[in-house]
Design goal:
Elements (H helix, E strand, L loop, with lengths): L1 E4 L5 H8 L3 E4 L8 H5 L4 E4 L7 H6 L5 E4 L9 H6 L4 E3 L5 H17 L1 H9 L17 E5 L3 H12 L3 E5 L8 H4 L3 E3 L2 H7 L2 E4 L13 H4 L7 E4 L8 H9 L5 E4 L18 E3 L8 H19 L10
Parallel strand pairs: 1-2, 1-3, 3-4, 4-5, 6-7, 6-9, 7-8, 9-10, 10-11, 11-12
Family: Belongs to the D-isomer specific 2-hydroxyacid dehydrogenase family.
Organism: Desulfofundulus australicus DSM 11792
EC number: 1.1.1.399
Length: 312
Amino acid sequence: MKIVVSEFIWEEGLQILSEQGDVVYNADLWKEDLVRELVDADALVVRNQTRVTREMIRRASRLKVIGRLGVGLDNIDLAAAREAGIPVVYARNANAISVAEYVFAAMLTFARRLEEATAHVKGGGWNRRLYTRMELYGKTLGLIGTGEIGTRLAHRAQAFGMKILGYDPFIPPYEVACTEFGVQLTDLETVLSRADFVSLHVPLNSATRNLINRETLALMKPSAYLINTSRGGVVNEDDLYHALKEGRISGAALDVLVQEPPQDSPLFKLDNVILTPHIAGLTEEAQVKTSVLVAQEVVKILRGEPSSCVVK
């Protein structure tokens, strides 16, 4: 069998795929003529840069499975895959801990400013009052999306003594996030207006595109911070830029952007924004788990076995 991997994968996953068939691996293949390799391919493994279109699926007549090294699915035409009878498997929960820890890193960065204080001291300063910041204890974390990542984040926030509000129309009040980890479910407006930190954990679709915009940003407190580790399109970047520039919110941490990598952005000019290159889920531990899990699930499908990670 021929297995095409069009973006980077850890060696542990590549080894599993190699035991099943002939692997064509190029971490930059998504930039090239990928369709040519797919004509006789049995499996395709991608991350978030490869656009798996309807036309690509139509031309890959032998394709039996698509593996997604991650959890976001907006780069894959799921309807076309479903119509072609091609299951899509993903890295279910594999990077949830890493993303939750990234959110805490962002909150602690905003709360304590250690890197800035270090530069201040190295530059000859010793202004303790300037770096008297805030505790996370007693602050309110607002979760927009309380699925697997939101739940793990709530667990950690509870240990820090934070109050936790959640908005998720798909989660009933008896889920573990609510019954065990202190999430109080409420409406979107309440989360935005009461939270000190708002963290986004939703897929990108027609309902969530530009969910955070001029109107919803206006609901947030001037002292509040926004953290986005979901998808860039969930936040209207122009509206966020003006909210940050005008001091209508205190800051933002964006791990995802509408265009990745960005060519230019007015956000680059602001001091109250943290920008990282889509790394919230990129820890060594998470990527070993992601690569192994997706490789194993792709092999299961190729062998005609059931997978627990098929997109429904």
